[in-house]
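user: can you give me the structure for this one chain? tokens are fine.
assistant: on it. calling the predictor now.
[tool input]
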Amino acid sequence: MKRLIPFVALLVAVALVAAASCLLTRRYLARPAVVAEQPELFAQIGLSAEQEKDINAIRAQFAASQHRCQSLMRQRNRELAAVILADRADSPRVQAAVEKIHEAMGDMQKATLNSIFAAKDVLTPAQYEQLLRLVAGQLSAGADNSCCH
């Protein structure tokens, strides 16, 4: 009985960490996907038919990158869960697994920015400036949700 209580407490802690990791991953992966998940941004800048075609090609490339990043995030979360169960405490392996998750999140952010910056070649200078203002506004609006102040 003495060993059962700590074991159950550990399982509850692992479940909470896994749930928090999933929630944070969903929250922070969804925010940078401005181009793919919010095509209305492009509707606000008045694309021509030709521009729409070129932007759709950029968005398709981004969607593939986004899928790869999300798959990697799921894999890294599974790795973190396994390390938590194995180490049963904060350890260098747990920290390394967390860093791998942060790296995957960074890759997602880079893919998002690459897709936005690729639009520069398709848009007029005025449209591109408007797009940058819209994206910056959305990123700034979500800045209060940071876990680290």
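assistant: here you go. Confidence is low (pLDDT under 50) at residues 29-37. The chain is about 80% helix and 0% strand.
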